[in-house]
Amino acid sequence: LDITANPMENVEIRTDINMWPSNGMTFDDSLVEQAYFRADFTNGVNLIGGKINAPFGAEEVDHPDMLQVSHGQLYGATANQFNGLFAGYDNDSIDVLVGVHNGSDAPAAPAAASALATVKYSMDSGHVRVTNVYETLTADDPRILVDLDTSWGFGDIGIDVEAMYAMEGDATDTGAMFKLNYGLSDTMSVTGRFDWVQMDSGVEDAPVPSNMTGAACLNYDLGDNLRSQLEVGVGMPNDDNEDTEDEMTIDAQLLLLGHF
């Protein structure tokens, strides 16, 4: 449930409620997806305060914008929401957002003030965006994330690419994703996604596990406000341990989506 109000000119207040979140109907942080105000000033300057969806990443946050059932691994490896105060500037080609925040929903909640900066350059057929997130997780080892995402559209084809690198002390996370959507008709499209994530604890001689996943989704609009999505996903883990055998996983999901 998304609620938007404009109490005065150039001021927007928005709240997004997850009425049936994945972990059940609980009155905790997962219940409120977003809750913020935005004030737009002259010359493209704006101010945002509250809880916002992460202003980076190649994947959409939720349905009906998503052209697949599930998110990829990079969506889970980076923060999805931020709580803070942000200042921005945007024009026809450049979007800049900087700010301070005191918490992100994933992968961990910082204990002190942290910072975010993202720059997006848009062209006729797509965009390129670079983001840096600094999170004070502990007194000694902040988590520093660099994320690059780009999206392009060419007729019936949409291409999304994302890469991320995060470090916290000696530990590092590295990941990449490629996604393609092809429109078969006005009511039908197919989406293919492939991603890879590696997690290095930084401990000498410790295993460095990684995981590759792939997913294919058929999207079919049953009506103006009704869509069906059938997705088949494959997981290919590698625990970097010769004593254990990695098992490939296969799953299928069917989603019927109504939006009004």
Query: What distance lies between the first and last C-alpha atoms, to the nearest angstrom?
Result: 10 Å
Using only C-alpha atoms, the radius of gyration works out to: 20 Å
Task: Tell me the strand order in the biggest sheet.
Answer: 1-2-3-4-5-6-7-8-9-10-11-12-13-14-15
Mean pLDDT: 88
Which structural class fits the helix and strand makeup?
mainly beta
Poorly predicted runs of 5 or more residues: none
**Beta strand count:** 15
Number of helices: 1
* Shape call: globular
Bin the strand percentage: over 45%
Fraction of residues in H or I helices? under 10%
- Which H/E pattern describes the elements? EEEEHEEEEEEEEEEE
Walk me through what this model shows.
With 260 residues, the chain is mainly beta. It is 2% helix and 61% strand. It has one helix at residues 73-77; strands at 2-8, 11-17, 32-40, 45-53, 81-90, 94-104, 114-122, 126-135, 143-154, 157-168, 171-183, 188-200, 210-223, 226-238, 249-258. The termini are close together. The model has no long low-confidence stretch (mean pLDDT 88).
Write a concise synopsis of the structure shown:
The protein starts with a strand and ends with a strand. It is 2% helix and 61% strand.
List keywords for this structure.
single chain, 260 residues, mainly beta, 15-stranded antiparallel β-sheet
